[in-house]
Amino acid sequence: MMSIQADMIYQPQEQVGNTEVLIVFHVDECLTEQSKKRIQNQLLTVAGIAALEFDSFRPHLLLVRHSASLIEANDILRQLDNLNLNAQLIVGV
Length: 93
Known about the structure:
Helix content is 23%, strand content 38%. It has 93 residues and is an alpha+beta fold. A five-stranded mixed beta sheet has the order 3-4-2-1-5, with helices on one face.
């Protein structure tokens, strides 16, 4: 299993369109491009996930923007678990 950690980035509600939240996942350095594509393809089919991308300058970071009114962070973590990834959410700045 690959290890993933996540940090919540808190922003004032007016900056994120009332209900959108950005989560940054710190992904195992050994994640292949094929695995990254698989993660992107799977997560983009989940209702409530608005966008996601791997940071081009720091490819071990996965940025996920989601609608908090449609899906919670724990649900995204379960989705990552379903992709056989060991995920951990770390809340803070």
